[in-house]
Amino acid sequence: MTADNLFEPQILAFCCKYCAYAAGDLAGSMRLTYPANVKIIQVPCTGRVDMSHLLKAIENGADGVYVAGCLEGECHFLEGNLKARKRVAAVRKLLAEAGIEPERVQMFNLSSAMGPRFAEIATDMTETIRRLGPSPVRRRDPIAL
């Protein structure tokens, strides 16, 4: 087994209370499995996720971060998910300019009824980050996420 096979990415997911977090609950109720290395933070709306939250997560040792909110046009706070999408795009641009893979930060939209999609997103994100390898800014002794 090589060192690459030992890498388990640390991924942080900011999930909207009304849709993405509820979809995660549904995935659990359906007994769907997804990687345990995805740590979920419930937020009232993805519009509350600031660029600094995403960048701080990477700085503090996350190998990947994603924001999961309501379907476009279905935000409970009208445009929160649209604001989040713009912030995610800005962070991806900053990462690219710094020579860090922008794929480490992503945005997804789903409804509360999309439990299987929630599990699929967590799995796909984990596979993407595993393929990219550890974050180049990861501390040698990472802070617990």
Structure description:
The radius of gyration is 15 Å and the shape is globular. It has 145 residues and is of the alpha/beta class. The protein has helices spanning 3-6, 20-29, 51-59, 80-97, 115-132; strands at 11-16, 38-43, 64-69, 105-109. The protein has one domain: Rossmann fold (3-Layer(aba) Sandwich), CATH 3.40.50. The chain has a 4-stranded parallel β-sheet with strand order 2-1-3-4, with helices on both faces. The longest helix has 18 residues, at 80-97. α2 (20-29) crosses α5.
Key traits:
single chain; 145 residues; alpha/beta; Rossmann fold; four-stranded parallel β-sheet; 5 helices; 41% helix; globular
Number of domains: 1
Number of strands: 4
Number of helices: 5
Q: Please indicate the percent range of residues in DSSP E strands (runs of 2 or more).
A: 15-25%
Secondary-structure element sequence? HEHEHEHEH
Specify the overall morphology: globular
Characterize the largest beta sheet: strand count, sense, and whether it forms a barrel: 4 strands, parallel
Question: Which fold does the CATH topology refer to?
Answer: Rossmann fold
Mean pLDDT: 92
Helix coverage percent of residues?
Answer: 40-55%
Alpha carbon gap, first and last residue = 26 Å
List segments where confidence is low: pLDDT < 50 over at least 5 consecutive residues.
Answer: none
Task: Please give the CATH class.
Answer: Alpha Beta
In the CATH hierarchy, the architecture is: 3-Layer(aba) Sandwich
Class inferred from helices and paired strands: alpha/beta
Side by side, the strands of the main sheet go 2-1-3-4
State Rg: 15 Å
